[in-house]
Amino acid sequence: MKAQQIPPVQPDVSFESTLKSNDTEEKIDIYFYRPIGYRIALLCAKLGITPNAVTIISIFFGVGAGILFYFPELWLNVIGMLLLVFANSLDSADGQLARITNNKSRLGRILDGFAGDFWFTSIHIALCLRLMDAGWPAWVWVLGIGAGVSHIFQSAMADYYRNIHLYFIKGVSGSELDNSADLQKEYDLNKANTNFFLNFVARGYMGYTRLQENCSPKLQRLLALMKSKFDMKIPAQELQAFNAQNKPLMRLTNIIQFNTRVIFLFLWLFIDQTWLYFVFDLLVLNTILIYMVRRQEKISGNFYQRLSAIA
Fold first, then answer.
1. Does residue 276 lie within any of the structural domains?
2. Is residue 195 included in any domain, yes or no?
3. HSE (side-chain half, CA atoms, 13 Å) at 15
4. Are 128 and 152 in a shared domain?
5. How far apart are the C-alpha atoms of 16 and 6, rounded to whole Å?
6. pTM value?
7. DSSP 8-state secondary structure symbol assigned to residue 219
8. R_g (Cα) of the chain, nearest Å
9. Which of 60, 74, 96, 141 could form a disulfide bond with 41, CB atoms 3.0-4.6 angstroms apart?
10. Same-domain pairing of 165 and 58
């Protein structure tokens, strides 16, 4: 992982070229967050601000939003909602800025994931403290921590399945798909010449990637077969069939990501029933996660058998 350099600005990059794929983009993102992020990205490109700097700035706005959710006054919560919306706009902008300036990096991708973790850690802590002030017992932290752990799994698998889908439709250049074996080799090769912070980040990312792989054993078998038998270049007919079955799952990855959970979070704040946020995360979003993983594993198992039968 190397420090970012500011590349030449490419002001003629279109809005559409800053999107990953229509298959993986939510309508709220396409019509709201991405246009705002595009404007911010263009401004940052002109000012020479790097994607990682935008990501770090978003952390402060997201954490600030969480702090404001601690207070029962609705007007403070509304300010927190606006801060969280702006933080997510910055989160959109950092990726778009990376594509505008061709300044993509694994470190940037990792920081982008950490940003959301900081936001929601702040939010969970604030809501637990708020509930305790309202008379809830200390076991409310069980709900908060359980929902937080669930959020990690939900985000990890949604991100992984999106990158799998992007890999199949765009290849290496259009995806950020990594595997733990390659990451371990890269880490072993570079750890002696890399500072403590970057080594710490690299180890954390390897653990994150292993989590994704451990939750998708049949998908890992399919990827291994594709690599050993087809050098990751499976027949076009099989590729199209896989994408057709996989595409509906992209809607589920969107549901368990930012927009749905935040819409309901805002609803619970408006009616001052914040405990429902944890219940929603634990029961509803985890149910969707389990279905999504089981469905993806079934698809992967079927295609493993199909590809194994090809001479």
1. yes
2. no
3. 12
4. no
5. 22
6. 0.87
7. H
8. 20
9. 96
10. no
Q: Considering the domain boundaries, does residue 192 fall inside one?
A: no
- The whole-angstrom separation of Cα 33 and Cα 55 is 15
Contact 63, 44 (CB under 8 A): no
Compute how many other C-beta atoms are within 10 angstroms of the C-beta atom of residue 281. Answer: 25
User: Which residue is listed with tokens 């490109």?
Assistant: 45
pLDDT digit string (tens) for 126-174? 999 999 999 999 999 999 999 999 999 999 999 999 888 888 877 766 6
Nearest to 208, CA basis, from 76, 110, 107: 110
Is there a domain that residue 198 lies in?
A: no
Query: Could you tell me the CATH number of the domain that includes residue 55?
Result: 1.20.120.1760
Residue 234, token pair as written in the block: 């499976």
Last residue of one domain, picked from the residues 101, 133, 165? 133
* pLDDT(3) > 70: no
Return the sign of the alpha-carbon dihedral for residues 263, 265, 271, 275: positive
Q: Is the dihedral of CA 164, 170, 172, 173 positive or negative?
A: negative
Counting Cβ atoms within 10 Å, is residue 156 exposed (0-12), middle (13-18) or buried (19+)? middle
Asked if 45 and 153 sit in the same domain, the reply is: no
77, 155: one domain: no
Contact 174, 166 (CB under 8 A): yes
Closest by CA to 160, choosing from 24, 259, 260, is: 24
Q: How far apart are CA 92 and CA 113, in angstroms?
A: 12
Same domain as 231, residue 125: no
Q: What is the 3-state secondary structure (H, E, C) of 83-125?
A: HHHHHHHHHHHHHHHHHHCCCCCHHHHHHHHHHHHHHHHHHHH
Q: Give the separation between CA 143 and CA 34, rounded to whole angstroms.
A: 33
Q: Is there a single domain that holds both residue 165 and residue 268?
A: yes
Q: Residue 23 and residue 158: Cα distance in Å, rounded?
A: 13
